[in-house]
Amino acid sequence: MTAVHAAYARYIPAAWASLRRQTHRDWTWRVQVDGPPADVLDALVACGAAVDDRVRTAVHGTVEGPAVARNIALGRCAAPLVQNLDADDELEDHALATLADALRAHPWVGFAVGHARDLFPDGTLRGHPLPLSAGVLPRGALPAAWTTSPPEAYRLPVHPAGVMWHRSLLLALGGWSALRGVEDTATLMAGSALSAGVLINTPTLRYRRHDTQRSLEKSDFSGGGHSIP
């Protein structure tokens, strides 16, 4: 599932291409358009996604932000496994297969996550060592690792944008957290506090680095959505 707004429409073809390359073929893509839809709908048509039966697009007509848009998309999902894909990111070719296999191998855990590689404008990919070992992550392991890391190494133990979830756990959490800029981080920490997870020792996400990333925004949050004329 992908929440997308007009400014990120230009990245939709690359996200779509990464889905088409998946070795696991049994998926549907829930695209939820946040705000004015024209640019996003045009991008879906231009890259061919709009005519693929696996792509289900919806428009809610207001600007609500990524957390609300994802939760609207979550309400449209029926599959037991939910993979978030931010509009400006890409999945590694084996991501869906590898993460789903990890959840099948550990049926008592609530989520699976792999490594993320930074994707730079020139196409360069850069990985990062993780402070945790691959395998089952006991309940509470992620917030414990995050809050006890030394200040000079203060960063998330895994990347929250590339998690595959059991839908039932996401629903138990109430969906994505209503926090500006850290909605996926807060959701992952809450998920880890509630359930064990599993970390696989391979990259599954390409995290695009660019100047308009929402995670870089420092503006004040006014709150509330507004209608689109």
What percent of the residues sit in helical stretches (DSSP H or I)?
25-40%
Report the radius of gyration as a whole number of Å: 17 Å
Q: In the CATH scheme, what's the topology name?
A: Spore Coat Polysaccharide Biosynthesis Protein SpsA, Chain A
End-to-end gap: 26 Å
Write up this protein.
The structure is a single chain. 38% of the residues are buried. The strands form two sheets. Strands 4, 5, 6, 7, 8, 9 and 10 form a seven-stranded mixed β-sheet that branches. Strands 1-2-3 form a three-stranded parallel β-sheet, with helices on one face. It is built from seven helices and ten strands. The chain has helices at residues 12-20, 38-47, 66-76, 95-105, 141-148, 167-173, 183-194; strands at 2-4, 29-33, 55-59, 81-83, 90-91, 111-119, 125-126, 135-137, 164-166, 197-208. The chain is α/β, with parallel strands linked by helices and 229 residues long. The chain has a single domain (2-211), classed as Spore Coat Polysaccharide Biosynthesis Protein SpsA, Chain A. It is globular and about 45 Å long. Helix 2 links the parallel strand 2 and strand 3 (55-59).
